[in-house]
Design a protein that fits this description.
The structure is a single chain. This protein is α+β, with helices and mostly antiparallel strands. It has a domain of about 70 residues. Helices cover about 35% and strands about 20% of the residues. It is globular, with a radius of gyration of 15 Å.
């Protein structure tokens, strides 16, 4: 399970709704694959209640944003995400044992 935090909603009238995940880090830059995986995580956690087309990742440092219209799903996002997340957890466990 992955917890998604700090998403904010932007509404303007009844026809404009956005769920925005702000990305503040200087490094790494968000590339297309990172945006695709991030949007998948947002959709997986919030997609049943919100339209994925209304979700965006906002790269604050570079003034760029990513949404479903910018990057297309390839269908393997869940597998890539889970593989990378499992690696991060194993590294966490390994490093924790060293300290």
């Amino acid at each position: 399970m992955v917890k998604v935090e700090n998403v904010f909603a932007l509404d303007s009238g009844s026809s404009f709704h956005r769920l925005i995940y702000p990305y503040f880090a200087e490094e790494p830059h968000i590339n297309e694959e990172a945006a695709r995986l991030g949007l998948w995580a947002l959709t997986a956690s919030l997609g049943t209640k919100h339209d994925p087309k209304d979700m965006r990742i906002l790269d604050i440092q570079r003034g760029a944003s990513w949404g479903a219209i910018d990057v297309r799903s390839t269908g393997d996002e869940e597998q890539i995400f889970e593989r990378r997340y499992a690696f991060i957890l194993s590294e966490w466990d390994r490093l924790r044992m060293e300290y």
